[in-house]
Amino acid sequence: MLLARTRLLVATLWAGSLWAVGYLAAPTLFATLSDRVLAGTLAGQLFSNQAWLSIGCALVMLVLLGATQTSTGGIFAGPAANMAAKSRRTLLIIVAVMLVCTLVSHFGLQPMMASLRAAAGPGGVMEGAAKNEFGILHGISSTIYLIQSLLAAWLVVKQ
Length: 159
Prior knowledge:
Blueprint: H1 2-32, H2 36-67, H3 79-120, H4 131-158
Helix pairs in contact: 1-2, 1-4, 2-3, 3-4
């Protein structure tokens, strides 16, 4: 029971932080700051912090799911045990996919976007030659973030 409640707490922290950063804080920065370069820099830092929190939550969830004992007695285990094993597998897959989303975004896409921002200079990437490339990377990153956010909702519900 304690493991299940701890899993729910970690899943809720993870999902809530994803939603707060991606759908509240970052849009608010761009809506309120007149300097879009500053807003982008601050949003980038928020997303970096969020990525590290996501990695931590994923690792904790994997440990908690690993500590959860489920019977895998096959056809003799009964429907409840088989359902618990299937639910645990589903949770493991959700956590693994969310972790992969974080790793791809943080260690794959974000460094490429950061190098484009650095090369753009003080005018910002949206006024430079790399605008299209940055837009494509941003679109891919946003799609991955949306997938991760939807999986986070499923993770909380499946607890």
